[in-house]
């Protein structure tokens, strides 16, 4: 038997990869499972983007390997997007690197900076990829607490009092997934200041700033590009392009050069048609985002009803693609509630525990289904009523 590498032994198969298998089995048995688990936008991307992709795909000369750094026009488009919506000035030649989704950026940053045993501050609850990438790169995860009573913002004073020796990276993500909490400009300043004081590389993961959020903020909106700050961004949610895999990392030129070493030894550039489509997507006017948000607002009203039907408490002030709700005390095991919802109602929602122990008493419901589907989910849940 060939044994799996040690670096993977502490990392489990991604929760959704397992659960989607279970859902597929149920569907194969004839059930029609309403999947409100995953945040994969269901709406169409900008037409202009699709057209640019298909035009390029029809040109024989545009199917070759591409530059590891992406075409300059794409880097410029990212910079124009940052200037227009975040009021941040970035240099397209030195401060931006297109990525195939921001998730791969989490891995590249970890591989670029972590030595065996380096510590990484990871939010609990938070996106599971931060911890997984840390472990795979040989780092040690140091969770920091996010609590509802602090509106899911870290207690930086308490953190400062801990021994931070050996901490190299801190992951932050606002608007925060899974809780939908937003950080103010002043709070972003606090994070940047904390990281600088402690010699930590602050990595801000920012894929949700355009979804149900009135003021998109970049970590660079607060103090400009600094040597100890990186930001990941993505077109997956903002432009309904999750399957295309387009994202970026921005930061100090030295970091971009370093991350390129990790990246260029793994992939061989992004398909030109996708880059051309992404440029068109990034050029969309503000009405594009308003249109999306109008639809998400309508959907969210139904998800709020689902939360109420399940007697979950939740904030109406959440940004991003999900509604995060606290399960009532009488429910002993959230995993049982989630399984009852799946097997009895045919509705899949995500249990909060997959995001860390501080998510144990919560569930997360996605807004990536149309209102009809959400209403069906609501009706199924209502029908089951007290059986849940
Ligand atoms: C917080 C967070 N970061 C990053 C990602 C990954 O986005 P991308 O599709 O750009 O890899 C997700 C996707 O669900 C996410 O929730």
Automatic annotation (TrEMBL):
Q: What's the EC number here?
A: 2.6.1.-
Q: Which InterPro entries match?
A: Aminotransferase_I/II_large, LL-DAP_aminotransferase, NHTrfase_class1_PyrdxlP-BS, PyrdxlP-dep_Trfase, PyrdxlP-dep_Trfase_major, PyrdxlP-dep_Trfase_small
Query: Would the keyword Transferase turn up in this protein's UniProt record?
Result: yes
Kindly list the cofactors needed.
pyridoxal 5'-phosphate
Query: Which residue range or ranges hold the Aminotransferase class I/classII large domain?
Result: 32-381
Q: Please name the GO terms that the record assigns under molecular function.
A: transaminase activity
Which family does this protein fall into?
Belongs to the class-I pyridoxal-phosphate-dependent aminotransferase family.
**What is the name of the protein in this document?**
Aminotransferase
Per the UniProt record, the source organism is Pontibacter locisalis
């Amino acid at each position: 038997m060939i044994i799996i590498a040690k670096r993977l032994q502490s990392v489990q198969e991604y929760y959704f990869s397992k659960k989607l298998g279970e859902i597929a089995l149920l569907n194969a048995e004839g059930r029609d499972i309403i999947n409100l688990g995953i945040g994969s936008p269901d709406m169409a991307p900008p037409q202009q983007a699709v057209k640019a992709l298909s035009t390029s795909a029809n040109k024989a000369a545009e199917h070759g390997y591409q530059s590891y750094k992406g075409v300059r026009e794409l880097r410029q488009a990212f910079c124009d997007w940052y200037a227009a919506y975040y009021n941040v000035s970035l240099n397209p030649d030195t401060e931006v690197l297109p990525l195939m989704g921001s998730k791969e950026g989490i891995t590249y940053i970890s591989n670029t900076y972590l030595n065996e045993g380096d510590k990484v501050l990871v939010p609990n609850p938070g996106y599971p990829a931060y911890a997984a990438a840390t472990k795979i790169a040989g780092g040690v995860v140091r969770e920091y607490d996010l609590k509802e009573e602090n509106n899911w913002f870290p207690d930086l004073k308490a953190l400062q009092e801990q021994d931070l020796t050996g901490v190299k990276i801190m992951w932050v993500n606002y608007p925060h997934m899974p809780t939908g909490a937003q950080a103010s400009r002043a709070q972003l300043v606090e994070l940047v200041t904390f990281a600088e004081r402690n010699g930590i590389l602050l990595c801000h993961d920012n894929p949700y700033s355009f979804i149900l959020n009135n003021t998109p903020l970049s970590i660079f909106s607060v103090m400009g590009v600094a040597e100890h700050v990186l930001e990941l961004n993505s077109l997956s949610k903002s432009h309904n392009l999750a399957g295309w895999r387009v994202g970026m990392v921005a930061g100090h030129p030295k970091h971009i050069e370093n991350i390129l070493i990790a990246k260029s030894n793994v992939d061989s550039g992004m398909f030109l048609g996708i880059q051309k489509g992404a440029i068109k997507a990034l050029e969309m006017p503000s009405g594009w985002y308003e249109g999306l948000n109008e639809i998400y607002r309508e959907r969210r009203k139904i998800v709020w009803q689902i939360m109420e039907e399940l007697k979950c408490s939740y904030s109406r002030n959440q940004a991003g693609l999900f509604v995060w709700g606290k399960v009532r005390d009488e429910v002993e095991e959230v995993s049982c509630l989630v399984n009852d919802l799946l097997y009895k109602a045919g509705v899949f929602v995500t249990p909060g525990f997959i995001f860390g122990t501080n998510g144990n008493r919560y569930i997360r419901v996605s807004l990536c289904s149309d209102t009809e589907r959400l209403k069906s989910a609501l009706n199924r849940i209502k029908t089951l009523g007290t059986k849940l």
